[in-house]
Design brief:
The chain has 120 residues and is mostly helical. The protein has one domain. Helices cover 59% and strands 0% of the residues. The chain starts with a helix and ends in an 18-residue tail after the last helix.
């Protein structure tokens, strides 16, 4: 497990206690190099699809994974999905994967797919 401090920070108590889960998740994603638009999208998707208890469990798992991570300053899509699969509730992994897809997050090293239509 690696690089899950994004989730950890997003779901842990933050300096802005009034921040919504969406804002905390988005702020953390931006800190790991994800552009603001995609980060907001993921935050909104997870806030809409997961309960507070599911988000807290995801944060707990992510914190544990971060403690074992030799390079906690980077986060990949694979890291995010791996953390989600460690949550006991399978719905969490499904919703994290759906959010990643809806928000066009891609694994490192792969460019987003481009749809090209023939004009002919």
């Amino acid at each position: 497990m690696r690089k899950f401090s994004l989730i950890t920070v997003a779901l842990a108590l933050s300096a802005t206690a009034c921040a919504s889960p969406k804002e905390r998740i988005a702020d953390s994603l931006v800190g790991y190099g994800i552009d603001q638009m995609r980060a907001d999208c993921v935050g909104q998707q997870l806030q809409n699809s997961l309960s507070v208890s599911q988000l807290m469990e995801l944060g707990r798992v992510a914190r544990a994974a971060r403690e074992r991570d030799p390079e906690p300053s980077r986060l990949t899509l694979s890291d995010l999905l791996r953390a989600a699969t460690e949550v006991r509730d399978p719905r969490v992994a499904i919703e994290v994967a759906k959010a990643a897809g809806r928000c066009n997050l891609t694994p490192m090293g792969f460019a987003p797919a481009k749809l090209e239509m023939d004009a002919a």
